[in-house]
Design a protein that fits this description.
Layout: H1 3-6, H2 9-34, E1 42-46, H3 52-60, E2 65-68, H4 71-84, E3 91-94, H5 103-109, E4 112-116, H6 119-134, E5 142-149, E6 159-160, H7 164-173, E7 177-184, H8 192-209, E8 215-217, H9 224-229, E9 234-237, H10 239-242
Parallel strand pairs: 1-2, 1-9, 2-3, 3-4, 4-5, 5-6, 5-7, 7-8
C-alpha cells in the first residue's frame, strides 16, 4: 500500500479540495483575462495512475468528469467508483491513444473519447458502440472529439490538420458516434502559441462544417491559461489537481 493510500481519507479529501480551489481559480483568472465566461471552460480531472479512491473523493468534491489514458485501468476504476458512489453521475473520458482492438471494451465505460485520430478507429468505435447498445452495456451514443496533431509527431497521436475535415465528416456520418469537437496535446517543442493558434483555426473550420462540434479540448496543468486564451472549452488537469503521478498501474 502506498503512503498516499494509507493516509486518512479526510486528509486526502482536504488536499484535493485545496488543489481544486487553486485550479478553479486559475481557470477563472484565465477566463477573465481572455474576456470569456468561466462557464465556457469545463474541468476534466485526469486520474490516470491514481487510485480509484482519489476518483471517489473527487466526486465528493463535485468533480464528475474524469479522464483516463488506458482502457484496462479505466474500466476497473469506473466500476470501483460506480460501486462506491452509485448516485454520482460520473462521465468518464478516454483521453489517451486508443487501439482499434480496445474499441469494444472502451465502449462499455466511456461517455466520451477525445482521441479519435483515424477513420479506421472511428469505424471500429461505431461498430463497438452499436454492439454494446444491442447487448445492454450502454444506453446512448458515444461522444467523440477528433484528435488533431499540432506538432507533427506521430508518436503522440493525432490526425494531421489537413486530414481533420475528412475525419470529422466520417464521425458525423456514423450512426453511433456524436461529433463534439477537437482535442489536441500540447507540442513538446517550438512555439506553443503558434501551435494553439493553428489549432484554434482548425477548430473554427470544423465548426463551420459541423456547427454542433463546439468543444475544443486543449491545455493541461502547465499551460491551461494559454489554451483558454486560444478558445479551449475543456482543460485536462492531472498533476495540478492530484499531485505528481506515481508509476502506471500494472
Amino acid at each position: 500500500m502506498s503512503a498516499q493510500q494509507s493516509r486518512p481519507a479526510s486528509d486526502r479529501l482536504a488536499e484535493l479540495g485545496a488543489a481544486l480551489t487553486e485550479v478553479r481559480g486559475r481557470i477563472d483568472a484565465a477566463c477573465r483575462a481572455a474576456g470569456r465566461a468561466v462557464e465556457e471552460v469545463r474541468l476534466l480531472a485526469v486520474t490516470k495512475t491514481f487510485p480509484a479512491e482519489d476518483a471517489v473523493l473527487l466526486t465528493d468534491l463535485g468533480v464528475l468528469e474524469l479522464g483516463e489514458n488506458r482502457d484496462q485501468e479505466a474500466g476497473a476504476k469506473a466500476d470501483a467508483v460506480a460501486a462506491a458512489r452509485p448516485e454520482a453521475a460520473v462521465r468518464w473520458h478516454m483521453v489517451g491513444s486508443l487501439q482499434r482492438n480496445k474499441a469494444r471494451s472502451v465502449a462499455r465505460w466511456a461517455a466520451e473519447i477525445q482521441s479519435v485520430d483515424s477513420v479506421r478507429l472511428a469505424g471500429a468505435l461505431d461498430r463497438a458502440v452499436g454492439a454494446a447498445r444491442a447487448e445492454g452495456e450502454r444506453a446512448g451514443v458515444l461522444d467523440v472529439l477528433v484528435q488533431a496533431s499540432i506538432d507533427g509527431d506521430p508518436a503522440r497521436g493525432g490526425c494531421p490538420l489537413p486530414g481533420l475535415p475528412a475525419l470529422a465528416d466520417e464521425v458525423a456520418r456514423s450512426g453511433e458516434l456524436r461529433l463534439r469537437g477537437v482535442m489536441a496535446v500540447a507540442p513538446l517543442g517550438g512555439d506553443p502559441a503558434a501551435a494553439y493558434d493553428a489549432l484554434a483555426a482548425a477548430a473554427a473550420r470544423l465548426r463551420a462544417d459541423h456547427p454542433d462540434a463546439t468543444e475544443l479540448s486543449a491545455g493541461m496543468s502547465g499551460d491551461m491559461e494559454l489554451a483558454i486564451g486560444y478558445g479551449s472549452t475543456c482543460v485536462r488537469v492531472g498533476t495540478a489537481l492530484l499531485g505528481v503521478r506515481g508509476l502506471a498501474s500494472p
